[in-house]
Fold:
Amino acid sequence: MIAPLVVVHGGAGRIAAERQPRIALACRDAARCGLDVLRGGGAVLDAVQAAARVLEDCPELNAGVGAVLSREGTVELDAALMDGATRRIGAIAAVPDLRQPIDLARRVLDDGEHVLLAGPAAWAFAAEHGIAPVDPARLITLRSRARLAEERARRAGVVAPIESLEPTEPAVGDDREHEGGTIGAVAVDAAGRVAAATSTGGIAYKRPGRVGDTPLPGCGTWADDHAAASATGDGEAIIRVTLTRVVADRIAAGASPADAARGAVAELARFGGSGGVICVDRAGRMAAWHDTDTMPVAAATLIDGEVRTAAWAAPRTIDDLAAALAAAPA
Ligand code: GLY
Structure:
């Protein structure tokens, strides 16, 4: 029997120290929420969806509420979730103005006709399934406005950010996901079934219509018989690496989740990118690895029937994650 386990991330990047406690709390809540689903007899797919919903509602993170803005000031969302045992996957790409993008991805998965729906045209499918877009004002935060303003200023050659919530933090250096904020969850249940979910607003100042790695199977999100993984970071590089599929394939070939995660993330540099990944395997092992400054991670499991949760701002010592979880207070 495997201890049910849910692991979540809040995006690879560089998060200012004062924001880290708020994000850690949201990650811990999300992992706990996913574990509660498993404890209640829910499926791994339900667990990762529940965890992702919590993180999409956290305005500190780049998904749902708080998602970054395109260069036109619009909110366009990518999300996916995948069930390892059946390889069912549902994904949405560049769909505007959804509060819980992962819910629409789930409807795509349950409907089963297609794997991926893109753009505003997906609103018609959403309406058929009881999901309506929200006023973008409910999703756009001061932070997302400031990020866009900084990026516009940087590209216009203005040295100092014209409006910044974090003047002590370096301005966004290019059009990558430097603050992090993509969210993801992976889960394994007592029978060794796994699932993954990922959700993001993409990269600040993206072109409208740009789609990153998150909704693409094997890139930002993957689950199969052996493992589930959720990636974060520079989407274009992650796509070239097919990061989450590489992680799962390495685990299937006998690598530990720790070695698989570390090795796959190392491939990003070849394509000029950086990022991170979380994964679980069917034996109930987990890993998280990133080559960025921070990647908030939290995990929740049962040890001797007691719920244990732990959170890390920048887990580098991946071999110690499970030990830290075991040592967490009940
Ligand atoms: N990793 C998120 C993105 O590039 O869209």
Remarks:
- The mean pLDDT is 91.
- The longest strand covers residues 76-83.
